[in-house]
C-alpha cells in the first residue's frame, strides 16, 4: 500500500470575524490535517461544472453520504484541479451539503498520486484523471481508477469510480 503525497492545499474558510460581503479567509490544509487517524474517501474528477462530474459523479456521493458514514467513513472529499473559488461555487450550485470540497489548484496532490493528465484536447490544461479511493490514516487502501489513463484521452470514462463501487468495496472490507 502507498501513502498519499504530503502536500498543502490552499483553501478558503468562513471567518465570522471578517465583516464584509466575502467573510472568507485563506487557510492552508495539509494532507496530515485531512487524513491523520481518519477513514477518508476521495472522489477525484476532471473539473468543476463539467457534465459527468456535475450530473452523476459528485451528486452520487452526496446522495449516499449517510451510507458511507454508516460504513465507518469519517469524511468524503471531492478533489479537482480547480481553485478554491470555483470549487465553492460549484458545490453551492449543486446544493452539496455533506461532501467537503478540496481544491488542488496547482495539481500537487494529483501529480503526487500519478493522476495528473493533460486535457489540452479539450482546452482544460492539466487535470485529474477520474478516480476514487479509500484512505485510512494516510494509507491508500483501495483505488478505483477509470480505464484509459492517458494524456488527452478522447473519452471521459465513468465505470468504476462511482459511489456504488465504493459502497460495494466498503461492505466487503
TrEMBL record:
Known EC number: 1.11.1.27
Tell me, which GO biological process terms does this entry list? cell redox homeostasis; cellular response to oxidative stress; hydrogen peroxide catabolic process
Leading EC class:
oxidoreductase
Q: Where is the active site?
A: 53 (cysteine sulfenic acid (-soh) intermediate)
- Domain Thioredoxin, which positions? 1-173
Q: Gene3D superfamilies under this entry?
A: Glutaredoxin
Q: Name one GO molecular function term.
A: thioredoxin peroxidase activity
UniProt keyword Cell inner membrane, yes or no = no
Q: Please, which domain of life does this record's source organism belong to?
A: Bacteria
**Function noted in UniProt:** Thiol-specific peroxidase that catalyzes the reduction of hydrogen peroxide and organic hydroperoxides to water and alcohols, respectively. Plays a role in cell protection against oxidative stress by detoxifying peroxides.
Per the similarity annotation, which family is this? Belongs to the peroxiredoxin family. Prx5 subfamily.
**What's the protein here called?**
Glutathione-dependent peroxiredoxin
Recorded source organism is Marinagarivorans cellulosilyticus
